[in-house]
Amino acid sequence: MQPRNMSMSGVVDLAAVKAAQEAKAKAEQARAETARQGGGGAVSPADLVIDVDEAGFERDVLQRSTEVPVVIDFWAEWCEPCKQLSPVLERLTVEYNGRILLAKIDVDANQMLMQQFGIQGIPAVFAVVAGQALPLFQGAAGEAQIRQTLDQLVQVGEQRFGLTGLTVDPDAEPGGVAAAAPAEAAGPYDALLEAAVRALDSGDLPGAVQAYKNVLADDPGNPEATLGLAQAELLQRVQGADPQQVRKEAAEKPGDAAAQIAAADLDLVGGHVEDAFGRLIETVGRTAGDDRDAVRVRLLELFEVVGADDPRVIAARRALARALF
To answer: What is the pTM of this model?
Structure first.
């Protein structure tokens, strides 16, 4: 559901809250059922940290991300900051006891994955949640910051996607994480959502957009389709753009709504969430009439891409309200 004016923003928020509540209830029911059955399918604590390469990425990251948020640690043997960060991530992953999975990717051995994620420096930490990738942080980070980020990630995974995590048994034999959990009964829109993901993977952005729209036509509040559509439309907008030219025009025309909107799209695709939001909020203050409305609508669309529960979105909503009123 794409907001077209300010009156729609409340509808979007209410739909997101309802979807979050339903997803949380499902997650709690799934955990209770697992406990009732004696914790079948448990994995060893040793299985919570895995090495991943390009060949196993779909199985070990994408598929696993439908059960548990997968944190990706991009590292290299020569990277000294990586040697400080990686042990902290590994320890915290075990401490979170199945609520996250840590996938370690050596960038020297997996250049294609590095390029696909747009990694420009390491250490770099991303997450994949229900097949959706999002940047967490780059460079050195303190343990308190990492804990806060992981807490937010777990919350988003549970509330927006109903991810129940992995059941951990200290006595389980290592190696259990490689076996996929039993599949749940297919939902009414699973085939359409899978078609959308396949279209994204193949670069068929118009096909992905249409597949997500097909789901939303019958189920306007579907959180996975709402997020997927926002992301697919964003990728479609930046496809073929010349980043250098877009940023040059934005720098030369600070009050031009179209130039700033195009640059904000690139900012977000590059993982610079705060820059994208800040750019558009500043442009709201510089523009009026239809231009201002176009900037505001695009900002609301980018909120959908990042997610209503993200603290950066919450802060940006407050800043937008100040800029508008």
So the answer is: 0.49
